[in-house]
Design goal:
- With 74 residues, this protein is an alpha+beta fold.
- The protein has one helix and three strands, in the order βαββ.
- The protein has one domain.
- The protein starts with 15 loop residues before the first strand and ends in a 6-residue tail after the last strand.
- The relative contact order is 0.35.
Amino acid sequence: GIEGACGGSCMCATCHVQIESINGAQLEDRSEMEVEILEIEFDELAPNSRLGCQIVISEGIESITARIVSINNF
């Protein structure tokens, strides 16, 4: 599962996921803080990398598939 050590406050990367597919509306862009946390924690950042706690599921999203990325820093 997803640990979420910071409780959703965008302060760690234990909820790191990679979005594999999305149907319907698109996700909002990553915030500057989200990108900063991801860049601190990972040497190589995939364009589909997100912090799960920062993903807002809007009404127009029909389905989303995300892969949980393991993190060994915590």
